[in-house]
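Tip: read the tokens left to right.
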């Protein structure tokens, strides 16, 4: 696949309470950092468990199992449901790397994603690096 995965443990972030005006500490959940280089594609895959992702940099274009397209810009979040019924791919059509923070953190050695053939009706143009 055209993405790189690293495990991250995030430090606490200090900020102000939204309604109290007092300082508070928030912990960003541990997870994985996924980097997709410009022109990179994850290939068609699914996940064994639900994942929550935040786009930290770049613009991610996802093609879902029903061939709908979702575009996620920096600061946006999305959920990837678990199971074979939710195959998808992600690609980077931009000029800067896409950086995602994805939770949950999986045990070392656990497959993060399971490669799968493209859904019916998908064409190789969807992701030239990983045609069906």
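Filled-in amino acids:
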């Amino acid at each position: 696949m055209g993405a790189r995965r690293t495990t991250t443990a995030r430090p606490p972030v200090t900020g102000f309470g939204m309604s109290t005006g007092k300082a508070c500490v928030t912990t960003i959940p541990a997870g994985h950092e996924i980097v997709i280089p410009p022109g990179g594609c994850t290939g068609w895959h699914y996940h064994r468990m639900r994942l929550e992702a935040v786009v930290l940099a770049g613009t991610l274009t996802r093609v879902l199992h029903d061939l709908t397209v979702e575009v996620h810009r920096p600061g946006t979040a999305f959920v990837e449901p678990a199971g074979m019924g939710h195959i998808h791919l992600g690609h980077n059509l931009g000029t800067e790397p896409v950086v995602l923070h994805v939770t949950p953190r999986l045990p070392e050695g656990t497959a993060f994603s399971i490669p799968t053939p493209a859904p019916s009706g998908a064409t190789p143009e969807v992701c030239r690096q990983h045609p069906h």
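The chain is about 0% helix and 40% strand. The longest strand covers residues 51-57.
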